[in-house]
Amino acid sequence: MSRGPGQDGQATVETLALIPLMIAVGLGALQLLAVGYASVLAGTAAEAGALAMAAGADPRAGVKEALPGWSKARAEVDVDEGRVAVRLQPPSPLHALSERLAITADAAVEEP
User: Is residue 2 one of the residues assigned to a domain?
Assistant: First the structure.
């Protein structure tokens, strides 16, 4: 197969042009995974806080105990009349993005 003039290295140039796009897609996929994981953690922590409240313990302590180390500093807990709400910011390279993607989960304790 013969090449036309000036086409040497064309595949290399095209591949190099795609590298930033592949990096952006990969970072986007990782951010989606972080949001999903934060959602699971927030739901579990809210349930743990509600269970602690039902047992007569401090719901905030129950929430903090249910969260792994990195997420304890990113969690906000609100306790109001038998309801525990947890707002959790997922990890992100951009702080503003992390705030916009914050997940809120809540759980309630029903009175018998």
Answer: no
